Amino acid sequence: MNDSYWEDHARGIFAEAKGFMKPLKGHLIKKSRFDNVLLFNLSVLSFEKMFVALLAYYEIEALNHTPLALFKEARDIDNGLTDEMKLTARLIASHESICSLDDKGYITPTDEELCEIIKGLVLMSDFIAGRIEAKETV
Description:
Layout: H1 4-29, H2 36-57, H3 67-75, H4 83-94, H5 111-137
Helix pairs in contact: 1-2, 1-5, 2-3, 2-5, 3-4, 4-5
């Protein structure tokens, strides 16, 4: 990342993702006062921003916005993304259908599913922080 535009873009978007992660991490410790609909929406926003930030780290503008497509796009660039992380992307996607053809639409995750999503997001956040924030010290 030689261009400061991409560095600033990656850091700025990742900072937004980390902000969305604060109430999610808190929910793992103590059940949140927010309902699962809001927490899931924060999860989706955090996921999307983390992966847009990771792609920006590699000076690539994201072409997708759905969880699995974003994950695949990023994994084509960074092979450090794991199958466990892909399962989190798949779990998010399973609740975020925007197509009426599958006859389900949006579905709010259960408490257990939401906790699994958040744990996966924490893992992803730590990984992506290692990429983006490591560059700052070089």
